Amino acid sequence: MNSITKEAAGVEHTELAADNALYIESLYEQFLSDPDSVDTDWQDYFKQYQSPNDAKHNAIKDQFLLLARNQTANKVGPASDNAAISTPEDCADPKQMAVQQLISAYRRRGHRRAQLDPLELHPRAEVEDLTLAYHGLSEADLDTVYPTSDLNIGKKEAPLREIIEIMERVYCRHIGVEYMHVTTSTEKRWMEKYLETNLGYIKFDEEKRLSILERLTAAEGLEKYLARKYTGVKRFGLEGGESFIPAVNEIIQRAGSYGTKEMVIGMAHRGRLNLLVNVLGKNPADLFDEFDGKVQPEKGSGDVKYHNGYSSNVMTPGGEAHLALAFNPSHLEIVAPVLQGSVRARQVRRNDQARHNDKDGNSVLPIVVHGDAAFAGQGVVQETFQMSQTRAYTTGGTVHIVINNQVGFTTSRQEDLRSTEYCTDVAKMVHAPILHVNGDDPESVVFAAQLALDYRHEFDKDIIIDLFCYRRNGHNEADEPSATQPLMYSVIKKLPTTRALYAQQLVEAGVIDEEKAKNYEDLYRESLDRGDYVVNSLVNDPDEALFVNWKPYLGHDLVDDWDTSVDIEKLKEYGHRMAKMPEGYKLQRQVQKLVDQRLAMQTGEEPLNWGAAETLAYASLVDNDDVLVRITGEDVGRGTFSHRHSEIYNVNDGSMYVPLAHISETQARFATYNSLLSEEAVLAFEYGYATTVPNALIVWEAQFGDFVNGAQVVIDQFISSGETKWQRVCGLTMLLPHGYEGQGPEHSSARLERFLQLCAEDNMQVITPTTPAQIYHALRRQAVRPIRKPLIVMSPKSLLRHKLATSQLEELANGKFETVLPEIDQQNTDQITRLVLCGGKVYYDLLEQRRALGLEHVAIVRIEQLYPLPEERLIAEIEKYSNLEEIVWSQEEPLNQGAWYYLAPHMFRIVVPHPTKAKVMEPVARPPSAAPATGSPKLHAQQQQTLVAESLGVSVDKLAE
């Protein structure tokens, strides 16, 4: 074993000689630099002692200096600094390593002994590795002095008794910290220093303690006031978790001192009304009016009071800051990714998108508040954590607060709630520190809030505060919780409130007397009676520069016609710019061919395909119209079907170049990101982004349109209904590849019928574009109109390269999006007796067969926009044909899916008042089916032939091969 045997070094006997100290210290240095450079036995020894990434190694040196002082395991009292070192046998101490292992055990496992539960319902099991015996120590060792240079307590050595007292105070009182799962040594050392220097808490001065009491009084006072005034009415009160209010207040004020200008909060029901009044500064009188039913929505449906958002400005030590509480539906954790998208957009607006590379970029802070059962149970939490450090979705770290009521609705048995010890264990997947804290110790809660904010500011990463508390009432105020949790609520009924406990603590400490503490309650209640604002830091005349002005985008009718033309020479110029690569950039052969072909298309030498037109739309928006463009989704850089290629790779070094980001020096931002394999969280993120930046085109593309069903919650509760519920406008664009290509049930349908069923009140737009010019104008229309509505695009697959699905450059330069495309071949309208209406890919199947069969009596009209349905234009098209005998709607989807059930009542209303010889309109579709499509290519082909033949009014055997 190098120059020292195992026996001599004491590895086998766990005894290290003091006169080998310098050698072993140098060996340890070598190990820190390159672990494999030392013998495996030494590696094993050093790994037990300290992390190989931890450069702090003074304790190694101190260990050998103290070997002579603690000559026996039973020695009492500190040794003299001048104690002589005699022989290795005299100074060898086998227990020093045991002490270090005990310290490490406290850091790693102390949280399992911490006093976290205010109810004390579940006694915690003995933690074996926090006992002396586990490490080969005993009470006889308590007065032996050991080095403490590895601790952050301001002294180099201390008796074991004192070391244990410090470890207990730091890691086992009312804060239990989990951070040893963090893989970065720097973060672990920072956490250890923060905790151990402060001995697990900060001793607050009297002013701070009184401010905590004042906020607790406000939190409790509002709930008591509402309980008396609106007995039994649902409000999802904060009783039992009142420490949440001073914690959030502390985070806001401390973040402001760091220069944060915006803080965005997302949370579900519990405590939301309390936060609105006592932190964001909503006028209590307005809240009471909502309870009294005096507030009615000016338009739309409105929403319940504990879903609504709010914004205000408050004063902090660093100046004025803007607070925003995100709107939230009942789907609990879904607000988390929505909030992250909003924060990212705000950071981009402040040139702060890459916070993780910008230590001064601290302008926008996300705060997400969770419930314990939802945090552990809902997959969107995991998806959002997985996004947190990715290039497309990072927001520089989020402060998470779990209001841990220790019960989910009526479920409190841990074996029913989750499979993990803590509800927060899922956060370990991103190595986020977790601060478990007893909610009945408000000072520890505020300390945890400070620690969390400081950590986030230092490392730009997520951190979690797990606020162990309880709910004094049931899931809502109409429930009787003792029916399902009799033992829990027998304890709760006897338990003084957090505010009462803390007030008594301050009285006993001489910080305040009982009369003044009672006066806090009276003053707050009087403020509520008067309807006064109860947030002292509220800014009554806010700085409007801190938030976005949406007024130019409000109050417009959803008009279809809009000028989306661009000078043709500019379009050609964009084509040249996108084809120009950096010097020395070598492309893969097929990509180079695509770039060359696209240049010919974009300069008018060849007809444009889908990708050429789409990228011209983006180029014109970022340069000509100064519109931010952001595109995300699975494989969007290349495009799932290899049509976009907005990201170009150098085959020599793998570097990536985005031509659309280099259109001009003054262009708006263009960004494209391949997302992680998530639909729900990613779509929610983009919705949040789109509701925050108005002058932008925010695009999410599904890999296959079918996959959008993984994000149905976002569509139902935000995209389709956010405007009517919350007056929250959004211009998000969704590209959903849709079309029956024989690829089976999960690669055919984007579930068009579901979107159409959700359409009402001009809430969104649903289109089925069939030409490159149409997608070009649709994307430009979406961005340049001063109207922000979600745009749902049933985008194609086979049409991306279809020989007939092309456009001329002049159509892009001069045209606009057409909601209805007329018949393109038949000029003699008098000979038309059969009119086929359709949308999407099926049009080209119909067109090719009609041409092949020479069916001059059949006209085909495309409805390119299904919602809002362009009824006047459809009527105009129908009225062109005075000799119609038959009108059919042709769709590829089964009859019970697709657009027919939506269209039928509209079409009857259109056709009947404008009679021709035609019968009432009839549908042609695949037979009704429980699945979207067949998995058999042969059956698919047969169904498609039958569909086309019936639509054209011919037999299948007449179809051209």
Explain what the structure shows.
The structure is a single chain. Helix 9 runs antiparallel to helix 19 (498-508), helix 23 (610-623) packs parallel to helix 28 and helix 30 (842-853) crosses helix 33 (937-952). The chain folds into 4 domains: 6-186, no CATH class; 206-406 and 429-539, Thiamin diphosphate (ThDP)-binding fold, Pyr/PP domains (Rossmann fold), CATH 3.40.50.970; 568-814, Rossmann fold (3-Layer(aba) Sandwich), CATH 3.40.50.12470; 821-958, Rossmann fold (3-Layer(aba) Sandwich). Strand 5 and strand 6 (319-325) form a beta hairpin. It is 37% helix and 12% strand. The longest helix has 24 residues, at 206-229. The chain is built from 33 helices and 24 strands. The chain is globular. Residues 1-20, 51-56, 67-92 and 352-360 have low confidence and may be disordered. GO terms for molecular function: oxoglutarate dehydrogenase (succinyl-transferring) activity. Its EC number is 1.2.4.2.
